[in-house]
Each structure stands twice: as C-alpha cells, then as structure tokens.
Amino acid sequence: MQGMHDFVPTDLKIEYINKLLEVGFDTIDFGSFVSSKAIPQMRDTAEVLAGLNKSTTKLLAIIANVRGAEDAVKHQAITYLGYPFSISETFQKRNTNATIQESLANLNTIQQLTQNAGKKLVVYISMGFGNPYGEEWNVDYAAGWIDKIQSMGVEIISLADTVGVAKEADISYLFEGVIQKFPKVEFGAHLHTTPGNWQNKLAAAYDAGCRRFDTAIRGFGGCPMATDKLTGNLATENAVQYLSGKLKNLTIDIQKLNDCILFSNRIFNEH
Q1: Counts of helices then strands in the chain (DSSP H, E)
Q2: 127 FRET partner, CA 20 to 30 A, in 35, 95, 165, 226?
C-alpha cells in the first residue's frame, strides 16, 4: 500500500490484515515504522498493530533506520523487524538516505536492538540480482555482502530482485552457493516478476533450496524503478498454487485466501 497516493483508512487496513492473519501464512508484513513525511501511508502503523487479532501467524514490521527499530521493538506483538539493505550505493541513498557503509553501521546497531528485545531481524538484500545504475554487480559481489551481514549474527536474509531483472541462472547460482556456504542462515526470495516469468523465477529459487518467499495478493506493489510496467511482486495466489504441488505441509486455507483476494478490491481498486 505504501506507494498508493490516497490514504487507506486505518480501519480498512486492520480489517484486511486480520483476514490475512486467518489464512495460515507464516508471517505477515503488516506495516512500517518509517518517517510519516517520507511514506504518509504508513503513519498509522502503531494503530493498525493495536487493532490486529492474535494469530499463529507472526508479524513483521519494516524499518529503515535505528529510530524506526527503537519504535518497533517496543511492541511485544512484533516478531520480526525487516531492514532493506541495498548493495547498490545509488539505491541505498534513495531508499534510506544513507550510504552503504552508514547502513552497515546502522544494521549492526539495529541487530543489537533486535536481539536485546528478543526479536529477530530479517535483512533484505535489495539489488541482490542485478544493478540498473551501472555499478558493480555479480554473484560473488552479492555473496560477499551476505557474508558481512551474516557475520553480525543475522539469521534470516532475503535476496530481493528489486527491479525485476534477475535471470533464472543467477537466482539458481546465488541461492545454491549461499545456502551451502551459510547453512545456519534462513534464506528467502523477494521476487519481482511479470505474468510471463513468475513461475520460472520461483522455480529457480525453490529448486535451489529456498523455502521462504515474500508474496503480495494479486502481485500488487513492486518497485517504481522497474522498467517494465508489468513488473510487480510475486502474486500470493500464484505462489500458493505452485507450492501446493511441491509441499505436503502447506497450511494455507484456500477459501480464506480467496476471501482476501476479493476483499483486496476494496483497497487497491477504490483508492
């Protein structure tokens, strides 16, 4: 929702997320503790959290700096803090107004805050599969940053195809390499896809051993810097359909998922 111009009413956000909490997902990314000036849509995150029902599904809040982490760790209901760390200098400055080195220092502080509060940090490696700015990128470069981050004690790292440029071969090679090299880290995939390539990208990550996937109902969202207007988040319903044929223990309630897809029209089509 964060890229939408019109503000989504708080009670509508709460109703929608409460429906999502009944589907059976492992984790729901419910909001962001970020500057209300930078992202006005997320200014009611604390209010939304207060209105959510208890569920076996864990809650994750996005933070972009130490201040956001300090706000997020105060809330007992939050299990995960998600921090976007770009290995592109240009994108890191645009996304968090900090250099890579400044973000690395912030990450270390945020990891300590998170651990002290009994929570876990999820680090998203944005531009993990390519760089549209002409800066250095290759799989070994990406793996080097992963090495630095996991050495801080970070246990969950999600590789993000931020602008949708990932090639299947790179997805396979990178996941196979880092999963083998860092067996104590849980790796995830944050894929941006088109209607024509989502399954190939998802299959490449799954076959390489990835078992944590970020998705969004109907593929809403994505990155405004993607060159293809069809590029969006990996659609939840597509991922569920694919993974249901692979995993015997998938705990998704399809009827409740369909209810959420229908309800999403009230948010994404009316604002």
Answers
A1: 11, 9
A2: 35
